[in-house]
Amino acid sequence: MTSRRTPTGAAVLQPEVTNAITEAVLDELAEAGFGRLSMEAVAKRAGVGKSALYRRWPSKDEMVGAVVAEFSVTRAVDPDTGTLRGDVRASLDALLEWIMHPRFSRILPDLIAEAGRNPELAEFARQTIGGPRRTINRAMFTRALDRGEIPPDTDIELAQDLAAGVIYWRLIVRRAPTSEGYLDEVTELLLRALGA
Q1: 15-56 adopts what CATH topology?
Q2: What is the distance between the alpha carbons of residues 161 and 143, in angstroms, rounded to a whole number?
């Protein structure tokens, strides 16, 4: 029996290198922003050569998109507590943690502004971040429909916009403080708006 070995010249992507690059991308985005982020700066911060980045992603846009998507989608939750109230409250907790993450709270507004100037980045974000997060979030409203907790004609897309929009507007756009019971208040507001 012959042992298999990696062919000469084949790129082997080491997870610890990928993790170092991912952290470097997030740090660079938080400090420099998308417009000033460079492959050179990311490589230097990660302690790797630029070739390590290009083996994983063909461009800066794809690198940033992939890293931000991985960071964002893994933080979406489908709590399934048995009630819409419990699901909404748990979902809002996760949403708040995501957008107020120490690094990501500086990254998100910059990426939204950049997406307004960069249609390819905007579409990539819709497909790899917004779409997957909304699919995960949609499940709680579908279950609520099945349980009869909300009217059968509920517009789930609008319900998702309402839940996320309130939090985003207050914390990212207005930069307004929140009280200890803020998420409970938003939960109750959303339930009333949905006729739950």
Answers
A1: Arc Repressor Mutant, subunit A (1.10.10)
A2: 18
